[in-house]
């Protein structure tokens, strides 16, 4: 059996450390081990442990404490898992209707282990992208119809092609992880739960446009995300996935992390770049656009966490696979942070075109305590 403990910010805040103590008190000296993973999206049920049986069955236990975790561990030793704290069908309905691409590794991989990411197919897309070359990568992204997930929905391939066509000896790939909207925690959960996926997507963008430097601009209020990004980057260097002549391809790339100081305006791409340059974060007039003249006046591709997290799967599985989801004009999926006066709060990833009613009533479980639905706000309340 495998025991996956949700160890994102929501899990830790809800008491995951006490749950870990309860499990380890029983498992010490046995063959059972607890794996720390990111949030699997069911934030309303934290702390969560997913048990994967030897037959491959997944059983979710939620709202655990030290004692109930201890009881779960004791039952595992007997070979008959307890029913106590097992999530009900109504609670598991939160996962029904979801299509997880960006979130597929969250709650499944150890975010502090590159080996865990590689075991789940990590960096295969990077190897494929290196063989494809920049023009073919951009063509694949064009066929996929991927649009930026930061809000504007700008076609990703146009931005990348503009940067590729811009003549410069130095170019940049920048990730906007300055998630400042109150109530939004999509980017945080991805960086905490599956940081290598974002880093791999940025490297593929680097191959596409001819850039050798990636910069992640992340909120200083996300200490766990920053910690796991740093661990991931160090692991990549140790594995030879960062630096010079990656996989013997002649491609060079490296990452830098910059922490924002809490200015909401730095979520806007030109203000973000101005902040990286060490100046007051203020928006710049456009044109020129960042793909032509961006960070330090060099061609710059700037996308958000969710956009980059889509890239490895598109490269690995193909544009037609991505195109099979969504609507005629908006392909793929979208991640939402579902919060407020609703039965099931957490992270939701659904195909484009899914109605707000489906998200609120079917996935979110509707308004609790039999109260009437009044209103829902999409986007950040800012």
Q: Which percent bin holds the helix content?
A: 25-40%
Poorly predicted parts: none
What is the total tally of β strands?
Answer: 10
First-to-last CA distance: 45 Å
Structural shape:
globular
User: N-to-C SSE series?
Assistant: EHHEEEHHHHHHEHHEHEHEHHEEH
If you average the pLDDT, what whole number results? 94
Instruction: Evaluate the radius of gyration.
Output: 21 Å
Helix segment count?
Answer: 15
Name the strands of the widest sheet in spatial order: 2-1-3-4
Main pleated sheet:
4 strands, mixed
Instruction: Output the structural class.
Output: alpha/beta
Q: Strand portion, in percent?
A: 5-15%
Structure, explained:
- There is one protein chain.
- The chain is of the alpha/beta class and 382 residues long.
- It is 38% helix and 14% strand.
- The protein is built from 15 helices and 10 strands.
- It has helices at 9-14, 16-27, 66-78, 89-92, 114-119, 124-132, 134-144, 156-165, 186-193, 195-209, 223-239, 269-276, 305-317, 319-323, 356-363; strands at 2-6, 34-37, 49-52, 58-61, 172-177, 213-219, 254-260, 300-304, 333-338, 346-351.
- It has a 4-stranded mixed β-sheet with strand order 2-1-3-4.
- Strand 6 (213-219), helix 11 (223-239) and strand 7 form a beta-alpha-beta unit.
């Amino acid at each position: 059996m495998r025991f996956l403990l949700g160890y994102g910010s929501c899990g830790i805040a809800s008491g995951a450390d006490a749950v870990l103590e309860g499990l380890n008190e029983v498992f010490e000296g046995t063959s059972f081990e607890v794996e720390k993973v990111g949030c699997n999206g069911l934030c309303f049920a934290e702390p969560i442990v997913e048990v994967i049986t030897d037959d491959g069955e997944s059983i979710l236990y939620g709202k655990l404490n030290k004692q109930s975790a201890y009881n779960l561990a004791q039952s595992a030793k007997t070979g008959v898992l307890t029913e106590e704290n097992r999530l009900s069908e109504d609670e598991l309905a939160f996962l029904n209707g979801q299509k997880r691409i960006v979130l597929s590794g969250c709650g499944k991989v150890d975010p502090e282990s590159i080996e865990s990411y590689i075991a789940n197919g990590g960096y295969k897309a990077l190897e494929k992208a290196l063989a494809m070359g920049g023009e073919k990568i951009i063509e694949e992204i064009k066929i996929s119809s991927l649009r930026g997930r930061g809000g504007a929905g700008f076609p990703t391939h146009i931005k990348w092609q503009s940067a590729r066509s811009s003549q410069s000896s130095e170019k940049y790939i920048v990730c906007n992880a300055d998630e400042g909207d109150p109530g939004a925690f999509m980017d945080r959960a991805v960086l905490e739960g599956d940081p290598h996926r974002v880093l791999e997507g940025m490297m593929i963008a680097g191959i596409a446009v001819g850039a050798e430097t990636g910069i992640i601009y992340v909120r200083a209020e996300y200490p766990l995300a920053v910690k796991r990004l740093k661990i991931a980057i160090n692991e990549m260097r140790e594995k030879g996935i960062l630096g010079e002549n990656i996989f013997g391809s002649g491609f060079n790339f490296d990452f830098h992390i910059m922490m924002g100081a809490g200015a909401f305006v730095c979520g806007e791409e030109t203000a973000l770049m101005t902040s990286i340059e060490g100046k007051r974060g203020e928006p710049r007039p456009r044109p020129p656009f960042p793909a032509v003249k961006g960070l330090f006046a060099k061609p710059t591709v700037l996308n958000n966490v969710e956009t980059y997290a889509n890239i490895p799967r598109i490269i690995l599985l193909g544009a037609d696979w991505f195109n099979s989801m969504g609507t005629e004009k908006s392909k793929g999926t979208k991640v939402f942070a579902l919060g407020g006066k609703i039965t099931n709060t957490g992270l939701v990833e659904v195909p484009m075109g899914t109605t707000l009613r489906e998200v609120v009533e079917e996935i979110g479980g509707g308004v609790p305590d039999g109260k009437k639905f009044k209103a829902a706000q999409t986007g950040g309340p800012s």
